[in-house]
Specification:
With about 525 residues, the chain is an alpha/beta fold. The protein is about 30% helix and about 20% strand. It has 19 helices and 22 strands. Helix 5 links the parallel strand 8 and strand 9. Helix 16 runs parallel beside helix 18. The longest helix is centred in the C-terminal third of the chain and has 14 residues. The protein is elongated.
C-alpha cells in the first residue's frame, strides 16, 4: 500500500536515439524529476531538460558490461522513491518493449510505490523508418512481429516459435540479435523461410552514426561480417526491406556522419546547430565566446536619454539590437522613442530582429559586413548628421572611422562585449587527438582567437591536420589565416544558412556527402 512519504516513479521511454523523438510528456517528466536514472541508449542531450538541482544517475548496460545489474537498478529506483522523491526512470526506446520496464513496475507496485508509464518510440519502428523501411505495406504484408534476438541459442526450451515466425508473419524485427544473427538466419530457413528473403541490419538507428547493411537470408551473415556492423542493431526480415532503395532518406543527407564542433556563443548556436543537424551532422557545442552586458550602462543611458538628437541608428548584429532594446525597455521606454530616427542594419537577420521590436530598417545592404553600410551611405548625405552605433566593445573600427570621414558625428557605444568562456579544453583536445572531429565552424574573428587559445600552440597544426575549417566570411577567414590556420570553406553569403550551404558544397565537391559584423 502506498504511503504519503513515498515518492512517485515515471518509467519514461526516451526513444531510440534521436533526442527529437521523445514525447512531450517524457520531457515534462524530466523537468519535474528530483532524480533521473538513465540508460546507455538514452540520448545524453535529453539531460538538458533536467533541472540543475536534480540528481542524475547513469545505469547503462552496454554489450554485457553492466554499470549496475538489473536487480540493483530495481533497488536503486525503489530506494529513491521510498525517500519521497519523484523519480524519472529514462529508458531507451519504449520501457515495455524488451526494456524490462514491466519488471521494474512490478517491484515498485509491490512496495506501494505509485508508477506511471510514459511510452516511447521503440527502435523497432524508428530505426527501420529512418532506414527507409516501412514495417507494413499493403503490397507486401499486413503482419509484423517483434522478437528478442538475445535468447541463448543453446537453451532447450526456446520461447520463440520459429515455425510460426517463418510461415505466419510478413515482417520480423529482432532486437539485440547481432551476435545471434547466424542462429536467427539458420532457424528461419530451417522452418521454411526462403533464402532469398530480404534482410537489413540497422546499427545506431536514428542517430548520426546510423549504418545499414542489406542482403538476403542467404547472404546477410557474410555481408555483416564484412561491414563490421555491431551492436546496438535492429534486424528486419521481410519483403518490405526491398523498399529501402526507393525510400531511404536519413542516410542520404549531405553531412550524414560528419561531426561538427560549433564554437559560436551558446545563446546564438541554436540556429547553426539545428541547420547542420538537419543536414545530417552530429553537432558538438563548444562555445569559445560568451556575450555579456557592458561593465556599466552610463554611455548608452546618456545616448538613450538624448535619443531624439540622433538622425541615424545603425545595428551591426542581432546582439546589438537585443542589448539596445533590452536597455531601452529597462528605462521604461519602447520603440516609439525612436520617433523620426532612421535605421540601418547589416544583413537580413539583424533586420528581422529589429522588425521584431516594431521597427523596419530603412537600409539593409545586400552584403553582410561593415563595409556594406559605408557603401550604402554613399548616396545618403550624412555630413553633419548624428549617428548612434550600439554594438560590441570588440567590434572593428572600420565603420565609425569611415562614417566620421564622411562628415558624420558618430557615437560608437558598447552595449555588449564578447569574451572567452574559459571552457575546459581537455574534451576538445581528446576529440581532436582521436580524429573524432570532421569540421570546426568559426562565425567571427573572436571565435577563431578564443578557439586557438584553448589549444597548445606547439600542437595546433597536428591536432587540426585532418579537420575541415569553415568560416562565415572573409573577415573571419583573414583573421584565421593571420593566425596560421588554413580555412577550407568560406561562405559566399555571410549568414548561418550561407555557411551551412558552403560546407555542403565543399563536401559534395570533395566527394563526401550570421548575420553580423563578424564580431559576434
Amino acid at each position: 500500500m502506498q504511503t504519503q512519504s513515498n515518492g512517485k516513479v515515471y518509467l519514461v521511454g526516451a526513444g531510440p536515439g534521436d533526442p527529437g523523438l521523445i514525447t512531450l510528456k517524457g520531457v515534462a517528466c524530466l523537468r519535474t524529476a528530483d532524480v533521473v536514472i538513465y540508460d546507455y541508449l538514452a540520448s545524453p542531450q535529453l539531460l538538458g531538460y533536467v533541472s540543475p538541482t536534480a540528481e542524475t544517475i547513469y545505469v547503462g548496460k552496454k554489450g554485457g558490461d553492466h554499470t549496475l545489474p538489473q536487480d540493483e537498478i530495481n533497488q536503486l529506483i525503489l530506494e529513491k522513491a521510498k525517500s519521497g522523491l519523484t523519480v524519472t526512470r529514462l529508458k531507451g526506446g519504449d520501457p515495455f518493449i524488451f526494456g524490462r520496464g514491466g519488471e521494474e513496475a512490478e517491484l515498485l507496485i509491490d512496495h506501494g510505490i505509485q508508477v506511471e508509464i510514459v511510452p516511447g518510440v521503440t527502435s523497432a519502428i524508428a530505426a527501420p523508418a529512418y532506414a527507409g523501411i516501412p514495417l507494413t505495406h499493403r503490397d507486401y504484408t499486413a503482419t509484423v512481429a517483434f522478437v528478442t534476438g538475445h535468447e541463448d541459442p543453446t537453451k532447450a526450451d526456446s520461447k520463440i516459435d520459429w515455425p510460426s515466425l517463418a510461415h505466419g508473419i510478413g515482417t520480423l524485427v529482432f532486437f539485440m540479435g547481432v551476435k545471434n544473427l547466424s542462429h536467427i538466419v539458420a532457424n528461419l530457413m530451417k522452418y521454411g523461410k526462403p533464402d532469398h528473403t530480404p534482410v537489413a541490419l540497422i546499427q545506431w538507428g536514428t542517430t548520426y552514426r546510423q549504418k545499414t547493411v542489406t542482403g538476403t537470408l542467404a547472404t546477410i551473415v557474410d555481408r555483416v561480417n564484412q561491414s563490421g556492423i555491431g551492436s546496438p542493431s535492429i534486424i528486419v526480415v521481410g519483403g518490405v526491406v526491398g523498399l529501402r532503395e526507393k525510400l531511404k532518406w536519413f542516410e542520404n543527407r549531405p553531412l550524414m556522419g560528419k561531426t561538427v564542433v560549433v564554437t559560436r556563443a551558446r545563446e546564438q548556436a541554436s540556429d547553426l546547430v539545428f541547420q547542420l543537424s538537419e543536414l545530417g551532422a552530429n553537432c558538438i557545442e563548444f562555445p569559445v565566446i560568451a556575450v555579456s552586458p557592458p561593465e556599466n550602462w552610463t554611455e548608452i543611458d546618456r545616448a538613450i536619454d538624448g535619443l531624439q538628437t540622433y538622425d541615424w541608428l545603425i545595428f551591426t548584429s542581432v546582439n546589438g539590437v537585443r542589448f539596445f532594446f533590452g536597455r531601452l525597455f529597462e528605462k521604461g521606454l519602447d520603440a516609439r522613442s525612436l520617433g523620426r530616427i532612421h535605421t540601418a542594419v547589416i544583413g537580413p537577420a539583424t533586420a528581422e530582429k529589429l522588425l521584431a521590436y516594431g521597427v523596419k530598417s530603412d537600409i539593409v545592404p545586400e552584403s553582410f559586413r561593415a563595409e556594406s553600410i559605408v557603401e550604402a551611405f554613399a548616396h545618403t548625405p550624412v555630413s553633419g548628421k548624428r549617428i548612434l552605433l550600439p554594438r560590441a566593445k570588440e567590434a572593428r573600427t572600420i565603420l565609425p572611422e569611415a562614417l566620421t570621414r564622411m562628415g558624420a558625428q558618430v557615437d560608437d557605444i558598447a552595449v555588449y562585449h564578447t569574451h572567452s568562456t574559459g571552457q575546459n579544453s581537455e574534451q576538445l583536445i581528446t576529440l581532436l587527438e582521436n580524429r573524432q572531429v570532421d569540421i570546426i565552424t568559426f562565425t567571427s574573428s573572436s571565435t577563431v582567437q578564443n578557439f586557438l587559445a584553448l589549444l597548445p600552440a606547439d600542437r595546433t597544426h597536428e591536432l587540426l591536420d585532418s579537420v575541415t575549417l569553415a568560416s562565415i566570411g572573409p573577415i573571419t577567414t583573414e583573421t584565421a589565416e593571420q593566425k596560421g590556420l588554413t580555412i577550407h570553406v568560406t561562405a559566399d553569403v555571410y549568414t548561418i544558412p550561407g555557411l551551412c550551404q558552403a560546407i555542403v558544397n565543399h563536401f559534395r565537391q570533395d566527394g563526401g556527402q550570421g548575420d553580423r559584423d563578424e564580431t559576434d
